[in-house]
Amino acid sequence: MDAFFLAFTMVFNLETMLIIIAASLFGLFVGAVPGLSATMALALLVPMTFFMEPIPALAAMVTTSAMAIFAGDIPGCLLRMPGTAASAAYTDEAYAMSRNGQADTALGSGLVFSAVGGLFGTAVLIVAAPVLAEFALNFTSFEYFWLILLGITCAIVISSDRPLKGAIMLVAGFLIASIGMNNPAAFPRFTGGNTDLLGGIGFLPMLIGMFAASEVLRSALDRSPKATIVDQPIHNVFKGMWALTVKYPVQILRGSTLGTIVGALPGAGSDIAAWMSYALSKKFSKEPEKFGTGHVEGIIESGAANNSALAGAWIPALVFGIPGDTLTAIVIGVLYMKNLNPGPTLFTNNPQNMYAIYILFIFANLIMIPLGWATIKVAKKLLNVRREILLPIILLACIVGTFGMNNSAFDVGIMLVAGVVAYILEENDFPVAPAILGVVLGPMLEENFVKSMIKADGEFAFFFARPVAGILGILTLMVWTYPLLRMIWRRRSARGKAA
Amino acid sequence: MKIHDSLLGLLFVMIGAAILFTVAGYPKMPGQDVGPAMFPGVMAAALVVFGGTLALRGRMLPGSHRLFELREWSQSPRHILAGLSVVLGCAAYALFSTAFGFLILAPMLLFVWHLAFGVSARTSLVSALLTTIVTWGVFYKGLGVPLPWGLLKQYAF
């Protein structure tokens, strides 16, 4: 109980509260401006967290991501341009509602059910994370090795419609993580004699380059015409929300549950959760013909899903150090930076930190309602912000933020290269998120692999000797061979039919 | 900038092969079968396999077989200039910030970026100066980031 009260004081103090308010406004602003993603918001925030205490830093991360995911609904609804990828699934629906004069309901349901989904995901995080952590206390390098492999495999198979390109990006991330002396043998790899590279390629310059500088470059080269705002007045966004709650309780529960589960899967984040929930909502709806014409049911379900996925993604991140999505990959970087190394011991050694994270999630989802309401009120002004003025400011923030971590101009160069390469690869349909997963998980995978190889004395069969490791290993191999088995099965079926 | 998958696949094969060649010379850990070459070696082999698959698939799948294509921005000098200004501006900061200093380089870069993005000269100037002062205040004074003084070192405070 002492730990809980300690956590309470760690969250409810002036410094943390001010940071929460500032991070909320920042997240709402970035989420509401089309073209600026939630990932970009977090990437730009990381240099600031370097100068904060651990809990205020985590508070900034939690509130910014939750607010940005919700705020992405606003331009989707009024401009037909999703503010973040997590809102893309129901942007057409929300825009159709706005054109039908129901912008209040579309924005209100996005806000209220995002908060409900977020609170549901938090409840699952509170219940599931400690149980999993206790289980994970018995894990050895064999279990961790397979768990990481299974996680990254899921990240490629589930989260990308281009698994081959996703796999290439993941491998590229692992190789980038191999640069420098950060390996079990402390041998300088791929440094070319450059002392700046001995410590490896910094996570932050890569992150800011790939998710912020590349976006600025894309916007600089973007020739698409400016979208026009739907000219509909916005009144009381909370009107009719209780009636919708009573009408669609199953959809709210289903969206929240699916979102939490999808979020907890490594690599699959809020955007995948929203797409899956929207499809599920349409499939099980009593009025599927209304979908696409401005029907609120899909918005409720997928709106709940995308915010519940946020909390769900923290479960593997905190318990195993395996990110549930790109946002938690960034969070893991911050956790390491703050000496809050993720893993089961985080729960046993410093329970107050865990309680503080739970409180932060609950608080962020609760204050989302008044702050989100205020953002909706000024939405039209926000959407008219001139991006051509904003983008150079963001670019300077990228540079100074990157420089500020190590006071290194070399890092600015890394950021630039990462940004340009990410831009080119994204233009060629390569998903960049797996590369960040690779950079985060690379050292962990190598360490557990080498440890296991030494313990097993080079015998790979030992990797399957422990029960949990064996199950995880077999599962991983099944996922790897599934596409091949499916191809053989289809060919056999086709031959059978032809005969 | 659209590059054909077969070309990109080939590029990844070449990178993977170069890494395999490099790690072949790495030593083993004393008394162990594994060493610093193991992990990047496995990953480089995977890159060769995946890159090769991408290249072959790119050749076999129907669709455009043009190896290189520029997007619509290549038709617009303003957009080319904006893109170039982003890349060259970041490079200029990485190379010259220590020599010139933040308070000289940042407003110059911001002014150029604003102009390149299509903002009027007056607004560009005001925004560049204000952004520089606010950024300097937040990072240098507020967070203690030692932004370089460069030519203004004697006036540092």
Task: Tell me about this structure.
The complex is a heterodimer of chains A (499) and B (157). With 499 residues, chain A is mostly helical. Chain A has two domains: 457 residues, no CATH class; 34 residues. Chain A has 22 helices and no strands. Chain A starts with a helix and ends with a helix. Chain B has two domains: 68 residues; 82 residues. Chain B has a two-stranded antiparallel ribbon. Chain B is flat, with a radius of gyration of 24 Å. In chain B, 34% of the residues are buried. At the A-B interface, α9, α10, α19, α20 and α21 of A face β1, α1, α2, α3 and α4 of B.
Main β-sheet of chain A: number of strands, strand sense, barrel status?
A: none
Largest interface: A-B, 59 and 69 residues
**SSE-based structural type of chain B:** mainly alpha
Write down the domain tally of chain A: 2
Quaternary structure type: heterodimer
Mean pLDDT of chain A: 87
Q: Helix amount of chain A, in percent?
A: over 70%
Unreliable stretches of chain A (pLDDT < 50, length at least 5) are none
Mean pLDDT of chain B: 90
Strand content of chain A: under 5%
Distance between the termini of chain B: 46 Å
Give the ordered list of helices and strands of chain B. EHHEHHH
Largest sheet, spatial ordering of strands of chain B: 1-2
